[in-house]
Structure formats: structure tokens, C-alpha cells
Design goal:
The structure holds 2 protein chains of 2 kinds. Chain A is mostly beta strands. Chain A contains no helices and 11 strands. The radius of gyration of chain A is 13 Å and the shape is globular. Chain B has no helices and 11 strands. Classes of the chains: A mainly beta, B mainly beta.
């Protein structure tokens, strides 16, 4: 059974720092992996989608990598800003097309 | 990409009443998904809604409590019935477009 873990659960850094959020999964037979952002009390915004055949995807200051062999994905945020403060969720899509969710990393960027 | 409009965005309801949440997708999609997110928790799948057939519910969720309609390929509703304070959560609808998952803005439900 696929399990997804996100570390750390919470992270607080000063504005301007580069940071890495981690997502690990137990079953490498994933269809794809997706990173989302959630603001308090709101829905989810898709940030990056990495297909199982891809190694990384980039969008602006965000870069997501995928290493299926080690069961890991990372989300790199460059030059962090207070507006980046949110909860970041990763989800692995399995062979049954179900999304398996991590518990999220709550990120606070201090001005 | 897909744009999903969900309403209401929030509501405060009396226990014992029901609330219907609506989701409209800007393109036709085969499956729509309904999730619950309890305070401080990650997402839990309630059910998968297919057009023209009964929704498929996950373990712990039943049709009498969470009836779902899927009248066409762009629209779905979730009703939270006979509400209790334990139903206070964020409810989210979702659909896939070209293998990427998209979500509505969420409905923040408080039951008093």
C-alpha cells in the first residue's frame, strides 16, 4: 500500500532564503507526482506535475524533482517571499489513478 | 488546465440540517472527486462521481450521509446530510485534466 510522507511538518525561514521541501513515497510504481499549495481555509492550487518518466519540472522560482528509485521528490523554492507562506502538499498518483496524499509542510516566510 | 468553480465558499449551519455544495468544471471530465479535509489534517477522499452511474464511496463514507449527484460531464453536487459538529471541515471537489489534478476553491463548513 502506497504511503506518502512529507518532512518537515513545519518550516519557518527568513525572507530571501532558498529552501527544500521533501516528499517520500513507499511504492515506486507511481503514475505521476504533483505538488500543491494550500492557503488557510482555501482550496488547492496545483504547482507542478512530474510524470513518472520525468526527473524534474520548473515553474518560475519553483523546481520539483522526482527520483522514483529512491522514492523521493523535492520542491525547491528559490529566493523565498512572505507570499510563499502556505501549506505545501504532495500527492502521488498510483496505478489505480488514486491520489495518495502527504500530510503537508506548513511554510512560514518571515519578512 | 481546468478551472473548477465551487460554491458556497463557506457556510455556518445548524446541526441536523443539510448543505449542498456545487462544483462546475469549465470542460468535460470523466470523473470528479469529493474530498474532506478536517482541521489540521490532509485530504480524505469521500467518493468518486461518474456521470450516469452511482458514486463510488470510500470506506467510512455512505450515500445516506453524503449523497452525490453527477447529472452531466461538467457538474456535480455533494450534500452533507443531518449535520453534526463533527462534519465541520473543508470540502473540496477535484477533477483531472490531462493527468493533472485540479481543485475547486473549497467549502469551509462550520456546524453549530
Amino acid at each position: 500500500k502506497q504511503e506518502v510522507t512529507q518532512i518537515p511538518a513545519a518550516l519557518s525561514v527568513p525572507e530571501g532564503e532558498n529552501l527544500v521541501l521533501n516528499c517520500s513515497f513507499t511504492d515506486s510504481a507511481i503514475y505521476n507526482l504533483q505538488w500543491f499549495r494550500q492557503d488557510p481555509g482555501k482550496g488547492l492550487t496545483s504547482l507542478l506535475l512530474i510524470q513518472s518518466s520525468q526527473r524534474e519540472q520548473t515553474s518560475g522560482r519553483l523546481n520539483a524533482s522526482l527520483d522514483k528509485s529512491s522514492g523521493r521528490s523535492t520542491l525547491y523554492i528559490a529566493a523565498s517571499q512572505p507570499g510563499d507562506s502556505a501549506t505545501y502538499l504532495c500527492a502521488a498518483r498510483d496505478s489505480n489513478y488514486q491520489l495518495i496524499w502527504g500530510a503537508g509542510t506548513k511554510l512560514i516566510i518571515k519578512p | 488546465s481546468a478551472v473548477i468553480s465551487q460554491k458556497p465558499s463557506r457556510d455556518i449551519c445548524q446541526r441536523g440540517t443539510s448543505l449542498t455544495i456545487q462544483c462546475q468544471v469549465d470542460s468535460q471530465v470523466t470523473m470528479m472527486f469529493w474530498y474532506r479535509q478536517q482541521p489540521g489534517q490532509s485530504l480524505t477522499l469521500i467518493a468518486t462521481a461518474n456521470q450516469g452511474s452511482e458514486a463510488t464511496y470510500e470506506s467510512g463514507f455512505v450515500i445516506d450521509k453524503f449523497p452525490i449527484s453527477r447529472p452531466n460531464l461538467t457538474f456535480s453536487t455533494l450534500t452533507v446530510s443531518n449535520m453534526s459538529p463533527e462534519d465541520s471541515s473543508i470540502y473540496l471537489c477535484s477533477a483531472f485534466s490531462n493527468t493533472e489534478a485540479f481543485f475547486g476553491q473549497g467549502t469551509r463548513l462550520t456546524v453549530v
